[in-house]
Each structure stands twice: as structure tokens, then as C-alpha cells.
Write a structure and sequence with these properties.
Helix content is 63%, strand content 0%. Bound molecules: zinc ion (ZN).
Length: 73
């Protein structure tokens, strides 16, 4: 699950680290759609599947923030 921690470094690079009013998807380098597509491809390899699921879960949670944001304000 180390790779899923690496993706959080993307957040640490941003300032502030966590902003509820900001959409992470498309903002951080590892949160762009090509990267997310690559995580999906990782699902093919059984050894990388756990990592891929972790990464995709992370993206899903970040994406959920974006989703709710649309209905905020
Ligand atoms: Zn994230």
C-alpha cells in the first residue's frame, strides 16, 4: 500500500494541504485523468491489484469532494 501513500504526497505539495473547497481531481499531477486511467490498467496485474484499488479508492474519495462541491453554496 506504499504507492497509495505516495499519491498523498501530491496533497502535501499543495498549499494548503487539504482544502475542502478545492477539487483535487485534475489539480495534482497524480490526480489527472490519464493517471487515473493508468491505475485502472494496474488492476490487470494481480500483484498490483491491491495498490490499484487503493489508488482508485483515493481518487473516488477525492472525486466525491468535487461532486459535493457542485451542490455547495
Ligand atoms: Zn488525493
Amino acid at each position: 500500500m506504499t504507492a497509495t501513500m505516495l499519491v498523498d504526497l501530491d496533497h502535501l505539495r499543495a498549499n494548503p494541504v487539504y482544502d475542502a473547497g478545492r477539487c483535487s481531481i485534475g489539480f495534482h499531477p497524480l490526480h489527472q485523468y490519464p493517471a487515473i486511467a493508468a491505475y485502472g490498467i494496474l488492476l490487470i496485474w494481480p500483484r498490483l491489484r491491491l495498490v490499484a484499488i487503493g489508488l482508485l479508492t483515493h481518487m473516488a474519495l477525492d472525486g466525491l469532494d468535487c461532486f459535493w462541491m457542485q451542490y455547495d453554496t
